[in-house]
Amino acid sequence: MPLALLALAIGAFGIGTTEFVIMGLLPEVAAEFGVSIPTAGLLVTGYALGVVIGAPLMTVLGTKISRKRMLMLLMGLFIAGNLLSAVAPAFAVMLIGRVVASLAHGAFFGIGSVVAAELVAPHKKAGAIAMMFTGLTVANVVGVPLGTLIGQDVGWRVTFGIVAALGVVGLIGIARLVPEMPRPDGVRLRHELAAFKNAQVLLAMAMTVLGFGGVFAAITYIAPMMTHVAGFADGSVTWLLVLFGLGMVGGNLLGGRFADRALMPMLYVSLGALAVVLALFTLTAHNKIAAAVTIALIGALGFATVPPLQKRVLDQAHGAPTLASAVNIGAFNLGNALSAWLGGMVIASGLGYTAPNWVGAALAAAALALAVLSAALERRDGKHRAVTSSVTPAEQRTAVHH
What's the pLDDT at 17? Predict the structure, then answer.
């Protein structure tokens, strides 16, 4: 794997850290600005919405420049947003900083996926995408716990300052290691938009929303589930999330490796197993050891879907994949927001803290159904093309005449 992937992974590490570290620092931020915890939660919501909006917006704005230059500009935006958060004199200013940083998120992973795939041989594309996403998964194992610890002991502003410094390292790495990769000749915005007419691209994005949504239906409410149901102490939640992060790292790498060999079978196995494990979590959540193992499995199976889904979008949007790739990153965050809302609804209805696991299982099962449908449509279209190509021009003219 080329060194340029390391630069992309460092950028991904910084982005992953800033996305999730705020969840552990909400009390400190709320206390300093004198706002409630629900109001401070807008820093999470604002970031997620910024990713969904920023993914297509920033990608469209970058259609006129090379992918390397766009990646550098996105890292600059990320640095600026985190610096603004670090020095924010008021809550509203920090919220603006979070949104500014989030605008870089979707486009960075979308364009980065295209660049990573182009850096390697065709049979290694999913593995290269997984290598970049390793930065995001490792952030949940190292960056988020460490950033939370620093923020609680030294100050949350220091955490965001360190994240901005990580962005500088990523920017320098991209400038030094990523080769100049101009956009292919003839590819314009209308070509990028045309990819969304492909039913297979839309099906892959729907699988992304539902499949990864299944993961976050459960993980969003992991703290009350583990403390009230499993009986863990409040301080244990951080280490349970580290287990989840370790599962993400392993699943991401396995997903990239096997997706290069058999993409659709990899999706069948990971989505099917994810649905089963999420359903079982309603039972295993009552036992500490079983719950810990299940959390790691959810992380592994959830992120095992990421490289094959991202590669599926790239394959189906061939010729103009950049915008579709970025929008698919937004689809992950849309799934997160949707599933968190649905999970909150079932808890609020009195079904208990384990009820979101059933929501997650249903979402993962729906993603599996879409994967089966996608493959069936692909086989049908393949047979149709084969039959059409086997008919001679004379036979076609005769058929038209009759």
Answer: 92
- Give the integer Cα–Cα distance in Å for 133 and 48: 18
- Where residue 179 falls among pLDDT bands split at 50, 70, 90? confident
Map residue 65 onto helix, strand or coil.
coil
The answer to whether 305 and 273 are in contact (CB under 8 A) is no
More confident residue, 37 or 401: 37
C-alpha separations of 374 from 364, 366, 369 in Å: 15, 12, 9
Distance CA 264, CA 247 (A): 21
Q: Estimate the share of the chain in helix, then strand, then coil, as percent rounded to the nearest 5.
A: 85, 0, 15
Best CA proximity match to 331, nearest among 75, 98, 109, 18: 109
pTM over 0.85: no
8 A C-beta contact, residue 267 and residue 371: yes
Q: Which helix (H) or strand (E) holds 329?
A: helix 322-346
CB 127 within 8 A of CB 120: yes
pLDDT over 80 at 320, yes or no: no
